[in-house]
Amino acid sequence: MIRRCPQCGATGDDVYGFCIKCGYEFPKIPKDKNACPLCGYPNPDEADFCVKCGTPLLFKSQFEGAHNAIKPIVIKREIGQEKQISSAPTSKFIIYLGYILAILGSIISLIIAVYLITRKDPAARKHGYLQLAIIVLYIIIIAALYSAGAIPPEIIAQYQQLLAGNFTSV
């Protein structure tokens, strides 16, 4: 509650119980039945929440120490009426294309996976992460085979020439 100090005339919030300019102690205001249990602000009788701080007034008996029955807050939610997020047909096509290219080991699948990860749709994100995991798994398998000697370095050099469009040595 905003109060004006009778000594210095300054206005201030009654949180501290005294004037913050001159130190004058304000007289105590008797609490009414609908005063906020947290900040003490007097609220209208029809208020369910404190007008000043937003504390639920349904629980004021809990703050006062009384053990009356407290009305529970019930949130009704109908199951089955939830709005389901579905992917658009174009993004389903992109998801399928990403899986096909990831399984085939294409570099384009990495671009599609990153694209899907950046979408707001949680289903598209999940598929993007799965496609990225497939790509990383392929990279790990190729690195393990290369380090074990199962893949000779000449094949990797030929693949790099193939990617560059140089078909003369193939």
Structure characteristics:
single chain, 170 residues, mainly alpha
Structure commentary:
The chain has 170 residues and is mainly alpha-helical. The chain has a domain at 89-164. Helices cover 41% and strands 4% of the residues. The chain has helices at residues 60-64, 89-104, 108-117, 122-148, 153-164; strands spanning 2-4, 11-13. The chain has a two-stranded antiparallel ribbon. Helix 2 (89-104) crosses helix 3 (108-117), helix 2 (89-104) packs parallel to helix 4 and helix 3 (108-117) packs antiparallel against helix 4 (122-148). 10% of the residues are buried.
Spatial ordering of strands, largest sheet: 1-2
What sequence of helices (H) and strands (E) makes up the elements? Answer: EEHHHHH
Strand count, sense and barrel status of the largest sheet are: 2 strands, antiparallel
Spatial separation of the terminal alpha carbons: 86 Å
Number of strands: 2
Helix run count? 5
Give the low-pLDDT segments. Answer: 63-68
Q: Average pLDDT across residues? A: 76
Report the radius of gyration as a whole number of Å: 34 Å
Percent of residues in beta strands?
Answer: under 5%
